[in-house]
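4.2 Preliminary Data

To establish feasibility before requesting continued support, the project team ran the inverse folding procedure on a target of 245 residues. The structure was first converted into the token representation described in Section 3, and no sequence information of any kind was made available to the design step. The complete token record follows.
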């Protein structure tokens, strides 16, 4: 009974978060359409950057955490929050075995072709280094704007991650949605969001249970709005029935 109540609470929160958000989709979205909590997740197949293809239907029997990062924050810049979110999950997986404990697969979907996904990965180490530079500016040269950014960065990105260019972490499949078939069809892709003109996804997290039903959906309301890692772990634990906290 307690688990059912918890699932209901997560579902209701998710419904509130997505209420009223409708994004324009082109007509060629291959029968995909925005899906609501409690509905079967439509099947799709995308190539993985690491090789091969992955279909949602092939993962039936596993819970699936499906993450649509923003990608670009400007036409010539990547979203730092997305790299931090990805690295947090990588770190948690390495230390806690999240996928094994929750019978879970974790997928990231980027709305770019393979070459742009490669750019995202190549920028990854510097993206994380930028966060450290914001948190620890040179005291001799930092100005008032730098002090405000330091305070913000230390609160928003408290953990320190270091990645070298030859060791970009890749434990989770990164799906290449170069035609934006999935991102458009599900209603996440846009050319403008948060005051930014760039080809990007509205950041979204979806959690699909082992029977293929969408149990959780979180669409970010602004550039800093992401579900915290501990919140995601709790939601995964409820849906997987593991009681993880």
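Position-by-position output of the design step:
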């Amino acid at each position: 009974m307690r688990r059912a109540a918890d699932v209901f609470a997560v579902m209701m929160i998710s419904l509130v978060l997505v209420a009223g958000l409708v994004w324009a989709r082109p007509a060629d979205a291959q029968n995909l359409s925005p899906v609501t909590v409690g509905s079967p997740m439509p099947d799709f197949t995308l190539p993985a950057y690491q090789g091969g293809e992955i279909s949602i239907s092939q993962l039936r029997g596993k819970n699936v955490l499906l993450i649509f990062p923003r990608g670009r924050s400007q036409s010539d810049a990547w979203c730092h929050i997305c790299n931090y979110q990805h690295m947090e999950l990588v770190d948690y997986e390495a230390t806690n075995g999240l996928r094994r404990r929750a019978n879970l697969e974790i997928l990231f979907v980027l709305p770019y072709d393979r070459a742009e996904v490669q750019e995202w990965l190549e920028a990854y180490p510097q993206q994380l280094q930028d966060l450290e530079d914001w948190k620890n500016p040179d005291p001799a040269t930092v100005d008032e704007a730098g002090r405000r950014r330091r305070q913000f960065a230390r609160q928003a990105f408290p953990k320190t991650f270091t990645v070298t260019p030859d060791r970009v972490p890749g434990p989770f499949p990164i799906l290449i949605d170069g035609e934006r078939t999935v991102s458009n069809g599900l209603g996440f892709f846009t050319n403008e969001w948060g005051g930014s003109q760039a080809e990007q996804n509205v950041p979204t997290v979806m959690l699909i249970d082992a029977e293929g039903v969408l149990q959780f959906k979180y669409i970010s309301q602004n550039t800093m709005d992401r579900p915290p890692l501990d919140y995601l772990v709790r939601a995964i634990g409820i849906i997987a029935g593991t009681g993880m906290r």
